[in-house]
């Protein structure tokens, strides 16, 4: 081998190639770091976005709830701030008004399927575009924008003993009914008025659920000659299972926590305490009887009832959906 060939064989590589190799090596080291940082940011982004809402819920909801539960184990009056154990809960069980309120809660649970079925059927008719469906959509939602006080005042006039309802019954030969003065009738009347005043929101939720329903299933049912009840039971109900679950839970919560205005205006808990509900009982104990600890105990019981009923409804509806 000559001297020239030996020198050329040991000659260093050009500077340009060395720089490209170096940049490739550095790029290979930095890219995984940048990629890991981006993955970490993507994983943290949902928590950062949810954090303000979680903070608001904890500060304004969960923390007051825990304080109320703790306060329910203290006394009222002379024993204010003193730990009394389960005395307040025992007093609730001995109070006939609170027991009546719990019986009325059971009545609401029994009437809940009716309160959900009414907006569900109306939404079905609107979805199927019955004649005048656009007008019905506006008319059905209109009561939802009215104040419970206004609704209660209107129905007080309509259902008075000498009001239009009894006048209409008299014109067909039926005797007058004491709609708001009969203990066996008053609670059903108030619940009916509440359903009429609030089903517009459930109607909107059902219509939103219909937007996710597969139209091909409805066309297949129509081709197979399915009747309207068969289409509702075998196609619409299974397709709207999650929507029905949501409406069941929200309707139950509304019936337990949003009827105070109607009760206050229409019956004031009467006659004979037959229209008491836990929320009205809580207001009486806190606002009139000055028993905040007892009211906190009643609030805790109401929360437990709503939680238990809601979970039971979701479980039953999920099981029914799996069976279908």
UniProtKB/TrEMBL annotation:
InterPro entries: ABC_transporter_permease, MetI-like, MetI-like_sf. The chain crosses the membrane at residues 44-63, 105-128, 140-161, 185-213, 246-266, 293-312. It is a multi-pass membrane protein. Its main location: membrane. Keywords: Cell membrane, Membrane, Transmembrane, Transmembrane helix, Transport. Residues 11-24 have a biased composition (Low complexity). Pfam families: BPD_transp_1. It is found in: Cell membrane. This is Sugar ABC transporter permease. It comes from Plantactinospora mayteni. The lineage of its organism: Bacteria, Bacillati, Actinomycetota, Actinomycetes, Micromonosporales.
């Amino acid at each position: 081998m000559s001297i020239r060939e030996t020198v050329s064989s040991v000659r260093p590589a050009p500077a340009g190639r060395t720089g490209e190799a170096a940049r490739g090596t550095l790029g290979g080291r930095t890219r995984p770091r940048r990629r890991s940082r981006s993955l970490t940011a993507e994983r943290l982004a949902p928590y950062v976005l949810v954090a303000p809402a979680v903070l608001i819920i904890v500060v304004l909801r969960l923390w007051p709830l825990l304080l109320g539960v703790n306060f329910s184990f203290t006394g009222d009056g002379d024993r204010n701030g003193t730990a009394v154990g389960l005395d307040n809960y025992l007093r609730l069980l001995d109070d006939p008004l609170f027991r009546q309120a719990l019986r009325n809660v059971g009545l609401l649970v029994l009437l809940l399927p009716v309160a959900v079925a009414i907006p569900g059927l109306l939404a079905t008719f609107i979805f199927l575009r019955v004649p005048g469906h656009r007008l019905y959509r506006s008319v059905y939602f209109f009561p939802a924008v009215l104040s419970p006080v206004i609704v209660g005042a209107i129905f007080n006039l309509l259902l008075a003993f000498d009001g239009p309802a009894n006048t209409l019954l008299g014109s067909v030969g039926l005797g007058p009914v004491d709609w708001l003065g009969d203990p066996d009738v008053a609670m059903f009347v108030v619940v009916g008025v509440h359903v009429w005043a609030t089903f517009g929101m459930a109607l909107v939720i059902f219509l939103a659920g219909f937007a996710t329903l597969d139209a091909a299933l409805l066309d297949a049912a129509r081709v197979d000659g399915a009747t309207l009840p068969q289409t509702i039971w075998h196609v619409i109900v299974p397709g709207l299972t999650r929507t029905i679950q949501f409406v069941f839970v929200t309707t139950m919560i509304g019936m337990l926590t949003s009827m105070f205005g109607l009760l206050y205006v229409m019956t004031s808990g009467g006659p004979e305490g037959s229209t008491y509900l836990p929320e009205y009982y809580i207001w009486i104990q806190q606002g009139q009887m000055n028993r905040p600890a007892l009211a906190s105990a009643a609030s805790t019981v109401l929360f437990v009832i709503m939680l238990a009923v809601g979970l039971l409804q979701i479980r039953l509806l999920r099981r029914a959906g799996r069976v279908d």
